[in-house]
């Protein structure tokens, strides 16, 4: 295994990554493990590290009720306990007790979740300390870290005697104080006090001989003395003897407990180490959460197939400036092992190189990385980098000499399992010779089958990449219209330095630029111009392609809606016609029967005028009934055809939230997030949770919602809402209602993060709160606050946007 140079972590900013992870640790032992992070080539070990962190991320996001792992470094206490006959004080034993309690809770957690967290269970499921030690400590030390009165029968007897003697002494001295006060021997407002552990009374100096007793102290002015009355002397002596006896008994108890600690020292040390490891793992998990990192599975091969890779330190710096990082898609495969990155200065070439080095180094140290979940990782046995100015005054080496020294080391130590990174390849000397040397070195590196990435401005290297197997050109994209970098990596073609264009933008004289073109040579200028024109044409084509794709998608959606509507109408038409035919047949049959009946009546009446007239009237009445029935049926069978709602969502469209039924207007669309105006409020919801509606439906839904919201003053609620709910001291039943109402109100007002202050105590109220939160689907995460801001005493609740 080779890591070159020895300052590789500093050059890749991995030291800053460790500082960030360390800030998430709860104690010094976790911090020690962070700074001991080591680069590994063992795939199984790396995957185990990443698996542990992956499972702890799930613990944090699932609200599984993981016990608080806050601990103290009790290593010095355990070292002190090694000496036979020594004893630890009560505070030290209390810290040891707390550590053992924490180990027990963690042990029980993993024992009860072996299938949910198999990797962590295998590591921590067997960590426990003899229960007899914890029972002994709990029986003698209370929750406040003080020795219990019943820690032993003798201690209970002594403390009871002390209590009685103190009452006797106070009663006697109070009596004397009152008598002295009645005679005017004491200062105004005098009261009992203690000097050297003995009860005394303040007496004016001029009257000290009027009160029998012993002077223990005097005031700064000498006007008052503190006198122990003779009547209390015997009681105070008795009290002092009892205090000595109490101290001897306490030492005996502490020695006994220390002996138990000594017997279990190895188990406690092993458990303490495990707490440090667990602290280290949870710190990596919290780092992954805050920096949106993943813990991928590493393969036993050499490859880089990364999507949306981000440099975490750069991303943090840009975020502080209100800017966003541009993720990179990076591929190094057996067929294209070496990436030759070109492009303008300040275009992101060096950042691309450092991103490759840092992410690969992080993953082989078992640290989560900022990439898309479809990314794939391999393992390299060596990482060699030549980044930055390595000029050495001590060794009398120039920058270029230092680069050549590095190249010599690379050529001697590179093989098929090596990843090398070289920034500004060949620079530092005359371009003609620097480019030639860089070319032959690159050819030799390609022969070793190693993987790597190189940044350069040399045109001969760009041409070489098109002719040598294993080397592929790549470019940092550049907007040639506004002459600004896009910080996006494009693999497959070289990039232009845009030197002449940038010089023109800065404002150099055009004649000077023309002379520069002639000196650079026609071929160089034409090559650079060709790259510039290709970049411009490609950007135009890509823009037009996106517009066409968007139009095609919309057209396909409209066609699909039209075909669905047409099919629906055809089906409805067929149903109406079939029903009409059936009804017509029924009408004809009924009419025929009526006509035949009428003819029969006329024939039987032998043309009787009255009978004929009556038959005609009956036939007319039947006709009128038929006409009315046909009209009613026509109205009944009318098919209402409405224009289909365009499914493509745009700003200004009216939508309805599926879950709540609230209607609003689209303000903006960002990926799968939609910003809506709901009444007087603005809210962000997921695209899948809304559906597009017509203006009429929007008005109706809005009116209904307004009726439902009558009596609720949202502005007042927003003004009076507190992002922290304090439920300390609240009974369990009342706390449940308070938490549920508070979360409902936070969701209504559009908050995405609130805090619930429940205190630490025995953790009962905390567990109750977590159980209530776990049942609400709108809650993404419920986790402890940072240790410096309240830790386990506060639950931070993250709600859906």
From TrEMBL:
- Do you know which Gene3D superfamilies this protein is assigned to? 3.30.1370.110, P-loop containing nucleotide triphosphate hydrolases (3.40.50.300)
Classification from the root reads: Bacteria, Pseudomonadati, Bacteroidota, Cytophagia, Cytophagales
- How does this protein assemble? Homodimer. Binds to stalled ribosomes, contacting rRNA.
The keyword NAD is annotated on this UniProt entry: no
Look up the EC number in the record and give it: 3.1.-.-, 3.6.4.-
* Coiled-coil features, chain-numbered ranges: 527-636
Protein name stated in the entry = Endonuclease MutS2
Q: Does the keyword rRNA-binding apply?
A: yes
Spell out where the chain crosses the membrane.
none
Q: Which InterPro entries match?
A: DNA_mismatch_repair_MutS_C, DNA_mismatch_repair_MutS_core, DNA_mismatch_repair_MutS_sf, MSSS, MutS, MutS2, P-loop_NTPase, Smr_dom
- The record's top EC class is hydrolase
Q: Which PANTHER family match?
A: OS10G0509000 PROTEIN, OS10G0509000 PROTEIN-RELATED
Q: Where does ATP bind?
A: 343-350
One Pfam match: MSSS
